[in-house]
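tool_call: predict_structure(chain=1)
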Amino acid sequence: MTTIVRFAAVVVPMTMVAAVMAQGYVDPRLLFLDPMVAAEVAERCCKTYYGIMSTLGVLMWIATAGVCLFAAGML
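tool_result:
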């Protein structure tokens, strides 16, 4: 079981980063920046996908905090 978790913890983020770097439509830097910073830096303002990787990171932190709070409540 731990091998599967370790594998998923490495392969899923690497696959996401590889997909962002391989696409040719948007500068990958704009996808990793904070959405407000990306809107300021970009040539054309305010695309909905600017900062998507940053936003996914925030959502992962929120999910992790929720799991930790649930586990603490159960203990």
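agent: Residues 25-75 form one domain. Proceeding to next step.
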